[in-house]
Amino acid sequence: MVDFGGARMIAVGDEIAEKVFWIDRALLKKYADASGDQNPIHQDVVFAKSVGLPDVIAHGMLTMALVGKFVSDWGGGSASVKEFSARFVKPVIVPADQSADLTVTATVTEIVGSAARLSISATSGGVKVLAMAKALVEI
């Protein structure tokens, strides 16, 4: 266990409390408008199904942004996040008139000087959506 200035005691194996983000079609539209990513797989169910998807899917960068928010909130702000990476393995499927969950948790895997290395889990509907998700957060 490492004492980071008396304010936080962090140890390898510590689990960060789960956070659930809810993604609906309105959020997809807002993100598309803000990012400029108007790919129809994120808004048009007919098109999404025509290319083999089960329904409209969330933008990958929206998924990453929400997981990044989880990390930066835990670390006390975005300036504390020194590294953050993941690999997309499944999309977040967003059916009409429903919200899809993006459930994020993390575990401290290493203390590196004044930083904590995190192993992150991100799922939607119980399905892993990110693999090899990790971060290094200055404490």
Describe the structure concisely.
Helices cover 24% and strands 41% of the residues.
What does this structure look like?
This protein has 139 residues and is an alpha+beta fold. The protein has a single domain (2-23, 58-138), classed as Thiol Ester Dehydrase, Chain A. The protein is 24% helix and 41% strand. It has helices at residues 25-35, 45-50, 60-75, and strands spanning 2-4, 8-10, 15-23, 81-88, 100-112, 115-124, 127-128, 130-138. Strands 3, 4, 5, 6, 7 and 8 form a 6-stranded antiparallel beta sheet that branches. The longest helix has 16 residues, at 60-75. The two termini are 13 Å apart.
The CATH architecture: Roll
Number of strands: 8
Topology as H/E string?
A: EEEHHHEEEEE
Major sheet description: 6 strands, antiparallel
Structural class: alpha+beta
Based on Cα principal axes, name the global outline: elongated
The CATH superfamily is Hotdog Thioesterase
Number of helical elements: 3
Overall radius of gyration:
17 Å
Specify the helix fraction band: 10-25%
Tally of distinct domains? 1
What name is given to the CATH topology?
Answer: Thiol Ester Dehydrase, Chain A
Mean pLDDT: 95
Distance between the termini: 13 Å
Q: What percentage of the residues does DSSP assign to strands (E)?
A: 35-45%
What is the CATH level 1 assignment?
Answer: Alpha Beta
Parts with pLDDT < 50 across at least 5 consecutive residues: none
